[in-house]
Amino acid sequence: MSMKKVPLRQCIGCGEMKSKKEMIRVIKTADEEILLDATGRKNGRGAYLCPSMECMKKAVKSKGLERSFKMAIPKEVYDALEKEMEALGR
């Protein structure tokens, strides 16, 4: 029997490759809206973060989301993402 391939994604904060299921997906919708995608199934351009505040802070500092989505990200979006991440208990 062959082993099933595990999809890997790179964290925009720390740059580590981890399995897709371990990570939090941040998406940019067609309306240019930035959201956390807990299900991993919403439509939109995705970027992945480790489920830790440390990686979130690294992503903010290195402008990881700006690079991934090729647009400026307002501070309110980062604040909302931080609150959502805290609500997830990470």
TrEMBL record:
- Where does the YlxR domain start and stop, copy by copy? 9-83
State the NCBIfam families in the record: RNA_bind_RnpM (NF047356)
List the protein's name: YlxR domain-containing protein
| Species the sequence originates in | Enterocloster lavalensis
